[in-house]
Amino acid sequence: MARGGSSSLSVAGRERKDVEKIRRIRMKNLFLQLESLIIPPNYSKKGVPINELVDHATRYIAQKQEKVEGMKNMKEKLQLCNEAGCHKNIIEEMLVLLWRLSS
Question: Which residues touch 82 (CB under 8 Å, ≥6 apart)?
Fold first, then answer.
């Protein structure tokens, strides 16, 4: 009887081990995907430590959010200026600024 119990325990233990292995592989693949999206391809250091990768991703996202907010503000100003009948040169200058923000 004890032998049957240990057999089922070892099967459950192996299943947990397999589930954990699959989880680790999945997390590794997700971090590799994040690295490919965030770190420039010409970055000299391969295999960025996870803590550096997460820090870099956090800063990158914050920068992109600021850029989006700046572009939204510029869009609103352009729309208001267009509705008010601003001079064409002013609109062109604002478009140039918007283009610079986007690059």
Answer: 91
